[in-house]
Amino acid sequence: MLMFAFIIFIAFWIVSMLIGYLMLAQLSLDWGVLLVIDAVGSWIAAFLLTMVFDNKRYKIYPGGIATRVVGSEGVEGYLFLAPHGLLFHPHVFRVQKEDTRVPYRSIAEVREGNSSHSIEVETNEGVVERFAVKDQEKWIADIKGKMKGGDEEADNQK
Question: Which has the closest alpha carbon to 85: 13, 142, 14?
Answer without folding.
Answer: 142
